[in-house]
Amino acid sequence: MKKSIFKFILSFAATALVVSCMSDDNSPGPDPDPDPVATCSDGIQNGDETGVDCGGSCSACVEDPIELSGEVTSDTELDASKEYSLTGSYVVKAGASLTIPAGTVIKASGGTAAFIGVERGAQIFINGTASAPVIMTSDAASPAPGDWGGLVIAGDAPTNKGVDVTTEIGDLTYGGANADDDSGSITYLRVEYTGATFSNDKEFNGVSLFGVGAGTTFEYVQSYFGGDDGIEFFGGSVDGNYLVSIGSGDDSIDFADGWTGSGSNWYISGGAKAGIEGSNNGDNGDATPVTTTTLSNITVVGPVTEGALFYKEGGGSFTIDNFYISGVDLGVKVTDTDAPAGVRIEGGDLTITNIQFAETEAGFAITDYAGLNQSFYTEGIATGAGNGAASPSWASGWTTGLDNSESTQENLAGEIAGDVELSASVEYFLTSGLIVKAGGSLTIPAGTTIKASGGTAAFIGVERGAQIFINGTAQAPVVMTSSSETPAQGDWGGLVIAGDAPTNKGVDVTTEVGDLTYGGNTPDDDSGSITYLRVEYTGATFSNEKEFNGVSLFGVGSGTTFEYVQSYNGGDDGIEFFGGTVNGNYLVSIGSGDDSIDFADGWNGNGSNWYIAGGAKAGIEGSNNGDDGDATPVTTTTLSNITVVGPVTEGALFFKEGGGNFTITNFFTTGVDLGINVTGTDAEAAVRIEADALSIDPIQFDAPAMGFLNTNYAGLNLDFFIVGDNTGAGAGAAQPDWAADWTVGIE
């Protein structure tokens, strides 16, 4: 009985507990949080999150890329905040437009299936900026050339392939009669890893423009590591400016099929074949319209395998200026079997001015063209796309892969028409004549070295009306020397300056070397400033009577600065003044093959602090005029602080061909056998000496050589010189303090 009652009590208690629990669960609980906070990290969507831990006040939710493929049949604009995936062909149909704003990135896959095409009659507007370019690239984890197609635009402008022809890639129709056709505007675009391959003969380029018209804007465009050509113009009339092609698998920039646009500011580097390939028509080199273009400000950085410029398949009419080429073995390539191209070159249809070569490769040739017309190019100083081989400033911010530095070697030749400044960090090679034209200037900074080759062909000339500024210092002189491993006298020409000051040779006469016009009526004419210059191994010889001097000054005016200048081991005279009024101070001439310092033709300048040693003939030769000793204006000068170290064969001073009016003070000679030389047949010189036109006070004859004569003048007036001790250029026969550091060869 007790047992049964106990069981009942347990059963009741259990029932009561269950009822109690049920009652608690059904009762109202606390209210939920009325203002939940986004946690952004708990794996739960809460607060203002629009997805799990993203959106709202959290970071933006990752969206799947928007696929681009198919056809654009109405005006469409992309969104730079979206990510785009190009998975197939994406073709803008005639009548429609595609606008791509700054900063948009499109990543492509699918090889030849993936490209962007713009039909004839359609438009594309790529509105990149320098800080936010539009980028079309590969979506591969390890991108490579040929990952996708590229950008193909078809227009209605003329080509010599015909009308209504089909693009070699993309199967778009192009070509018509509308030269001003407008396919839109493309600015600040970079295409990468294009060039997908159909076959050995059929590949996409980075950007292909087929019959695109002049109404289209195409500028600030880069192709980077494309599998075929970087950028190619197939006929049409669109201009292409500020273009960059880096690492192309074929030619870097190519134009053909009657392209009649122009181009400026092209920077090209690392292409596999030609830097620029310019053609007329691969099937008919004489097809019309003929490819006709004007290009300017071009840089090609090699190596290349088919020339910096390949003039091909009839070429065309090309005018190219400011063409800078670095690291190539061939400048202009023309195949010897290309008869139409040869005809055009002979007819003057290819003109290249101011082409400059730097860092040339082994076996370098300017051209392999073997025809008669070898004057289709003119060398000069070029800046190319802006900075020579270095990246141009206009390419900053929006391009990739421009890691080239400034060239360390450059060739100099041709003409300078504007203002040009060299760089002391570059080693220059003077391969031919370099002429500063009237109105132009050449500035050469301290420490610059110019190495010359080519004999009489290699010299630096400054026309009348031009200027040269040689800004050397005692610690960093400008040096013009021979490029030979075993340099010798006569390896190259020298420096020739022509001015507008008076001479007794007349007005508008021609320099005996360099064929420059000089002489006028401007005594204070200004040809620039030359300080701390050393010229070495000059004196290239035309004939027994015609050789370059180290420095030749023809009719140079007193507005010109000429001081701290040395000629070293020149083949003819070291320094010579042909008329003019320029002063020459702190001059050194060592080892000249003729006279050390020479002046003539009515020079009316003055000179002080001249140090002369080792000349073959006279220390100083002073003349009036070789054809007429009485010609006017008469050579008139005051010289002071002069040292001549012998031996000499024609005197420490040769008073010659009428001499002139010379006043010389502090004249030190040593080791000479003849002080003042005056030939017995020089009547005009004798008349001047008798009239006291020659005055030397004092002159010192230190350690005279065997058979010494102070003068061989046989006239009555032997008082024109007074012997006395002096220091000459500063230290007698020793090196003067002012010649320290920047000169060579003074013992």
TrEMBL record:
Coiled coil: none annotated. The keyword Signal applies. Keywords: Signal. It comes from the Bacteria. InterPro entries: PbH1 (IPR006626), Pectin_lyase_fold/virulence (IPR011050). SMART domains: PbH1. Residues 1-23 form the signal peptide. This is Uncharacterized protein. It comes from Flagellimonas iocasae.
